[in-house]
Structures are given as structure tokens and as C-alpha cells.
Amino acid sequence: MKIFTTKKETETYFANKGEKVTGFVATMGALHQGHISLIKQAQQSTNEVVCSIFVNPTQFNDPKDLEKYPRPIAADINMLEQTGCDVLFNPPVNEMYADNEKWHLNLGDLEHLLEGEFRPGHYQGVTQVVYKLFSIIKPDFAFFGQKDYQQILVINKMVELLNMPVKLVMCPILREDDGLAMSSRNIHLTPFDRENALILSKTLSWAKNNFDSNNISAIKQQAGQMISSQPGVELEYFEIVDGQTLHPVTSESKTVVALVAARVGKTRLIDNVLID
Question: What is the pLDDT of residues 36-71, one digit of tens each?
Fold first, then answer.
């Protein structure tokens, strides 16, 4: 596996890729099998797979959250090599950002709904770094996990606004055997938290199995009660919305998605399920 740490060497390498079809998986490290599943899916449909590891400071609202974000780079590199990843881009912060850099993209209300309400500015930071990564690597396809559902909609909006020649591929959520969505943040869960966190996937599954487009409000209310009654779990939101706009479901909705965010102990977790 080739490892690059500067924009210049990375851009030079991909400028000479010839006819290769490149697949890209952007990560913040602390890799788990969910990330590996993205790389494996990329391997099936492209000639060369590049993974980035960069803990992006502009998408963190809480400095303490940024500080404690796990960075096991040696273990990550080993996982990537074992999986057969072709290229790793692992830049330092000063390679990606100049001083006093400004960025703002008009993402519409996608930026302010759900995650955006609880993490103001988060998606400006996400689009800022993903734009940089796409510009450096110039991938043909970029693979993202469904767990960050709203993020995929936001990045897709950015691609459309800036007319970037990359196709996004959403890959299914990978779960532990008991249903917990795989996440780099799971490492912070105590055994007590870990058990309580299962209420998120259980409630999403219940909402999917009991979905009735005429009773969405009642389903949301019941789901909220299920989660809020779990010890050590503080619900931020549980929503059932149009899968393309994140607005309320209408008769025109082609897809429906249920999304949840909650703090379990000191750890913030998100999850979702496609209903229709």
C-alpha cells in the first residue's frame, strides 16, 4: 500500500492514473469493519481504492470531542494493508488548512435539520474537507456509509452545486451481532452504556416493522418514549422523514427513513433505517 502525507505527492500520483477507475473512502481513522466493508465494496467496482485518514478539526463543535477522538494510526494502517487497500492519504492538519481559511457553501435547510440543529456548522466543516479531498484525489466513485445518512445528502448537494465529476455510493450500515451500528465512538461506551445503546437499533427496527404512513406522529411518539425510558440514554431526536429532503413524509415521498441521535452515557451515537 502506498502512503502519502502531502497534497503534492498525492495529486502527482493520481494525475498519472491513466485509465484506472478510482474508488475513494474518506475516514477519520479508528477503523472498524464498517469502514472495511466500504473498501471491499469499492474494490468490487473500481481498479484502485484510496482511503484517507484525517481527523478534520472544522467539523467538530466541541474541542473536547476533537481532542478525545481516537487516533490508532498504526492499527489503522495494518487493517488497510490486510484488506488490500491500494493508497492511503494521511495528511497533517497544516497540510490541509492554511491560516484564516474561509469556507461557506449554501446547502439550504439540509444544513440546519436534525444533525445540523444539534451540531451547528458541522456540515460546513464536512463539505470543506470533502471538497479538498475530492479535489486532491479526483476519484470516480466515493463510498460512504449509510449510518451518516444526512452527511451523504449534504455531500451529494455539494457535488451538484460545484459540478464535481464524482459519483457517490451509499453502502449499508454494518452492525454488531446484537444490532449496534458500528462506530469509531463505540470504543468510549462502558459495558453499561454498551447494553443501553441497543435501544437505538431496537427502536428503529420496531418503527420499520410498525410503519404506517397515516400514523407517523404516533410512531415517533412511541419510539421517543422507548428510547427515553432506557437508563443512561438521553434522546436528541427521533424522526421519520422523506429520504431525499429530510422533510415530513408526503404522498410524493419515494423513500422514507427513520433517524435517531442520542447520548448514551457520555457518548453521542446516531443510527438510521430505511423504511420504504
Answer: 999 999 999 999 999 999 999 999 988 888 998 999
Give the whole-angstrom CA distance, residue 154 versus residue 250.
Answer: 21
Instruction: Tell me which residue of 214, 243, 233 sits closest to 225, measured CA to CA.
Output: 233
Is-contact 182 33, C-beta < 8 A? yes
Q: Is 122 a catalytic residue?
A: no
Catalytic choice (32, 35, 112, 247): 35
Three cell numbers written together for 165? 465529476
User: What does the DSSP assignment read for 216-258?
Assistant: HHHHHHHHHHHHHTSTTEEEEEEEEEETTT-SBP-TT-S-EEE
Express each pLDDT in 76-90 by its tens digit.
Answer: 999 999 999 999 999
Q: CATH says 184-274 is which class?
A: alpha beta
| pTM as predicted | 0.96
Q: Cα–Cα distance between 87 and 260 in angstroms, integer?
A: 34
- Where in the chain are all domains bearing CATH 3.30.1300.10? 184-274
CA–CA separation, 80 and 132 (whole Å):
22
Domain 2-171 homologous superfamily, CATH: HUPs (3.40.50.620)
